[in-house]
């Protein structure tokens, strides 16, 4: 299967670094016009030089309510369509037990990681996709399938994002497909505390595929969801090097 996105426009939140940049590169590589957005102009400028093709940026904080409309309008003006929306940017202001999370940090996680993907999807739908069709890709996490010592609040909203994917897919078909990716540990700045140093090698050694993920691994999956996957909606692709299916240290079975 060859993936061809010529004539299509993708809008990627958090496209200036890490996984978002990996996705933007993959989509641009298949011929899409790509608009990236993040808060810092210098990061965006450097990223579009790397992404290449027909790419551009608009700085934006996705948690601010008015931003979705401004960015979708600017993308329509610049490229003429919004065929693919990748809800990728996220935050994690609290590392600790959920039971101790204060309201400002709970609200911030909700606003950026859950409310923004819904609101940006609503805006893309109203302004383009309802009439012209399209594809939404949400970036969740394998953390959404499990409990966690320090990332419980983050993981709760990632699980909710997977459910939002199912709900919106049911509502937005047949014109719009809505899918999700649940990455495992990917070597980006966001997750550096989890993979930097000896811990990274220890985790890699536990994985069936023997290495940590790179942003390009998620870029490939996003390209499939955007340009292939024509009979797939409401689903989550787990891209984790086998983390979820690895054999854990259960006691041996007695003969
Ligand atoms: N890395 C992993 O191991 C991993 C695993 C599972 C899931 N994920 C998910 O993958 C996605 C990307 O993570 P990453 O690891 O690539 O992170 P990253 O390397 O820190 O990149 C995050 C990007 O989002 C932008 N951003 C952050 N907050 C923003 C905001 N409020 N508004 C607009 N842009 C914002 C950042 O740019 P600015 O600073 O310029 O805003 C940057 O472009 C997230 O949804 C994350 O939860 C990551």
**Major sheet: order of its strands?**
3-2-1-4-5-6-7
Helix and strand run: EHEHEHEHEHEHHHE
- Count of DSSP helices? 8
* Rough outline: globular
Structural class: alpha/beta
Give the integer mean of the pLDDT values: 97
- Looking at this structure, what is the CATH superfamily? NAD(P)-binding Rossmann-like Domain
Q: What hetero molecules are bound to the protein chains?
A: NADP nicotinamide-adenine-dinucleotide phosphate
Task: Give the CATH architecture.
Answer: 3-Layer(aba) Sandwich
Strand content: 5-15%
* Number of strand elements: 7
Q: Tell me about the biggest sheet?
A: 7 strands, parallel
CATH class: Alpha Beta
How far is the first residue's CA from the last residue's CA?
A: 48 Å
Which stretches of 5+ consecutive residues score pLDDT under 50? none
- Work out the count of structural domains: 1
Q: What helical percentage do the residues reach?
A: 40-55%
Q: Rg, please?
A: 18 Å
What fold name goes in the CATH topology slot?
Rossmann fold
Secondary-structure map:
Layout: E1 9-13, H1 18-29, E2 33-38, H2 41-51, E3 55-59, H3 67-79, E4 84-87, H4 103-132, E5 134-139, H5 152-172, E6 176-183, H6 192-195, H7 198-206, H8 215-227, E7 236-239
Parallel strand pairs: 1-2, 1-4, 2-3, 4-5, 5-6, 6-7
The protein binds NADP nicotinamide-adenine-dinucleotide phosphate.
Task: Report on this structure.
There is one protein chain. The chain has helices at residues 18-29, 41-51, 67-79, 103-132, 152-172, 192-195, 198-206, 215-227; strands spanning 9-13, 33-38, 55-59, 84-87, 134-139, 176-183, 236-239. Helix content is 44%, strand content 15%. The chain has a 7-stranded parallel β-sheet, sandwiched between helices. The chain is of the alpha/beta class and 255 residues long. The longest helix has 30 residues, at 103-132. Strand 4, helix 4 (103-132) and strand 5 form a beta-alpha-beta unit. The structure holds NADP nicotinamide-adenine-dinucleotide phosphate. NADP nicotinamide-adenine-dinucleotide phosphate binds at residues 13-14, 16-20, 38-40, 43, 60-63, 88-91, 112, 139, 141, 183, 185-186, 188-191.
């Amino acid at each position: 299967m060859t993936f061809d996105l010529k004539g299509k426009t993708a809008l990627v939140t958090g496209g200036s670094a890490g996984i978002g940049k990996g996705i933007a590169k993959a989509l641009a590589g298949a011929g899409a016009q790509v608009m990236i957005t993040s808060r810092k102009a210098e990061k965006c400028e450097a990223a579009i030089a790397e992404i290449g093709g027909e790419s551009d940026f608009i700085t934006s904080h996705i948690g601010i309510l008015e931003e979705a409309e401004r960015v979708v309008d600017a993308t329509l003006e610049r490229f003429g369509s919004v065929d693919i929306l990748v809800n990728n940017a996220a935050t994690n202001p609290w590392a600790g037990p959920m039971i101790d999370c204060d309201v400002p940090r709970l609200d911030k996680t909700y606003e950026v990681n859950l409310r923004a993907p819904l609101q940006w999807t609503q805006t893309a739908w109203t302004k383009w996709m309802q009439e012209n069709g399209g594809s939404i890709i949400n970036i969740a996490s394998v953390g959404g399938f499990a409990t966690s010592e320090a990332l419980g609040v983050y993981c709760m909203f990632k699980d909710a994002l997977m459910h939002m994917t199912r709900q919106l897919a049911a509502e937005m078909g047949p014109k719009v497909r809505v899918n999700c990716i649940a990455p495992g540990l990917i070597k980006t700045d966001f997750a550096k505390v989890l993979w930097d140093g000896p811990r990274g090698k220890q985790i890699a050694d536990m994985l069936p595929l023997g290495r940590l993920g790179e942003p390009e691994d998620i870029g490939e999956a996003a390209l499939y969801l955007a340009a292939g996957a024509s009979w797939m909606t409401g689903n989550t692709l787990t891209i984790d090097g086998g983390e979820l299916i690895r054999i854990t240290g259960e006691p041996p079975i007695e003969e």
